[in-house]
Amino acid sequence: MIVEDQAILAMEVEMVLTDAGCDVVGCAMDQESAFAVADRERPDLAFVDVNLLDGLTGPQIAHRLVEDYGSAVVFLTANPEQIPEGFAGALGAVSKPFDEATLRAVVAFARQFIFHRTVGEAPRRFRLAPWLRTPPADIAPH
User: Fold this and answer.
1) Over the stretch 29-76, which tens digit does the pLDDT of each residue have?
2) Closest by alpha carbon to 4, among 46, 60, 64?
3) Which of 32, 37, 48, 76 has the most neighbouring CB atoms within 10 Å?
4) Domains and CATH numbers, the chain
5) Are 75 and 90 within 8 A, CB to CB?
């Protein structure tokens, strides 16, 4: 799932994710449409911008995706200072602009977390969430 209010960027991210073997289940530009997609699709992984059409709603979206749907979340943002302390349950953040190699590496990192509950080495240009640096007992560092 992609939550991004810049349509061209969302399409670019979708293309990279599809090429990386992901099934993109939906794109949303604001909180309401993000939750509509999440209710319908229950995504394993979501890329979420911090600032959307309806304001600074990315952190609330991320928190709910993690808590209510069990999704892994990665922030995509040009404003990393706006990410809340603790990352609202997200795995980490990629700063805009980013390249295809970075997104592919982040997908591989997220897959390892989703399927094995292990934390591998963080990809370059990926800011790992603080809660993953000292993981709980049920998440083993790799």
Assistant:
1) 999 999 999 999 999 999 999 999 999 999 999 999 999 999 999 999
2) 46
3) 48
4) 2-141 (3.40.50.2300)
5) yes
Q: What's the CA gap between 89 and 58, in Å, rounded?
A: 12
Would strands 27-28 and 2-3 be described as parallel, antiparallel, or unpaired? parallel
Which pair of tokens denotes residue 120? 């591998």
pLDDT value at 140 more than 70: no
CA gap 137, 100 in Å, rounded? 33
For residues 118 and 111, the answer to whether their CB atoms sit within 8 Å is: no
Cα separation of 74 and 89, whole Å? 9
- Here the tokens at position 103 are 């997104």
Phi, psi angle pair for 27, to nearest 5°: -125, 145
Q: What is the pLDDT of residue 132?
A: 86
Q: How many CB atoms sit inside 10 A of residue 47's CB?
A: 27
Whole-angstrom distance, CA of residue 16 vs CA of residue 67: 27
Which of these, 119, 114, 91, 108, lies nearest to 16 by C-alpha position? 108
- The whole-model pTM stands at 0.91
